[in-house]
Design brief:
Elements: H1 5-8, H2 24-37, H3 41-71, H4 78-89
Helix pairs in contact: 2-3
Length: 94
């Protein structure tokens, strides 16, 4: 089935323009991908950022949340947890 690019574009609210400096070799790759996919450089960069945030970015945020939980006392000592698991396995439920 054929779809126009405009139909596939997200209707998400956009920010104002930002300024970004890229290494020249990276910009060349972005431009080559944009040309090959008949998309804009912005589209390629947004797609790359979304993929980064969905992967490594989410991991960074999860670690940050975990550190916050530890700092607020919302955590369990791993040694205590392991002792409880060993007791359960040995039939001496905690």
């Amino acid at each position: 089935m054929y779809y126009k690019k405009e139909m596939l574009m997200s209707k998400a609210e956009l920010s104002g323009p930002i300024t970004l400096r890229l290494p020249a070799d990276l910009l060349k790759q972005v431009e080559a991908i944009a040309a090959a996919s008949e998309r804009s450089r912005s589209w390629v960069i947004v797609r790359a950022l979304r993929l980064y945030i969905a992967g490594e970015g989410d991991e960074i945020l999860a670690v940050s949340r975990g550190r916050g939980q530890i700092a607020s006392g919302d955590a369990h000592d791993v040694d205590d947890v392991l002792r409880d698991v060993e007791a359960i396995v040995a039939g001496k439920a905690a």
